[in-house]
């Protein structure tokens, strides 16, 4: 999916600002990606991205590339890792056959049980 005009000079990771689990992970990613990625709550910018349904924002993080392409969920997480020099090696896992379907399923499971996983992390 592509959006018309990402409103920034860097890619954006859009997350659920009401989710404590999400905020905790965003803080970690923000520290490793420094200024290479922008982070914003979907509650603040959803109207700027009418092509992304609200349900998509509520279910998963959305990564908006500078060219307007949008990645969601586990795909968005691995894209963020490309901007974190000390974590970039994790991106190599995507080349393992069958890894990404499993990563996507795990992401969906964790996202559906964020309150529980918030207590664990």
Shape: globular
- Per DSSP E runs of 2 or more residues, the count of β-strands stands at 4
Question: Based on helices, strands and strand pairing, what is the structural class?
Answer: alpha+beta
Q: For the largest beta sheet, what order do the strands appear in spatially?
A: 2-1-3-4
Residue runs with pLDDT of under 50 for 5 or more positions: none
Taking all Cα atoms into account, the compactness measure Rg is: 14 Å
First-residue to last-residue Cα separation: 31 Å
Task: Count the DSSP helices.
Answer: 6
Strand content: 5-15%
What profile does the largest beta sheet have?
4 strands, mixed
Question: What is the percent of helical residues?
Answer: 40-55%
Strand and helix order: EHEHHEEHHH
């Amino acid at each position: 999916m592509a959006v018309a005009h990402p409103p920034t000079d860097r890619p954006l990771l859009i997350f659920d600002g009401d989710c404590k689990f999400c905020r905790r992970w965003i803080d970690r990613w923000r520290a490793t990606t420094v200024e290479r990625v922008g982070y914003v709550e979907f509650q603040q910018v959803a109207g700027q991205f009418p092509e992304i349904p609200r349900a998509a924002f509520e279910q998963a993080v959305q990564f908006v590339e500078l060219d307007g392409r949008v990645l969601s969920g586990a795909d968005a997480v691995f894209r963020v890792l490309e901007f974190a020099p000390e974590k970039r090696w994790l991106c190599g896992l995507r080349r393992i056959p069958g890894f990404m379907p499993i990563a996507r399923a795990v992401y969906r499971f964790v996202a559906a049980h964020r309150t529980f996983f918030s207590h664990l992390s």
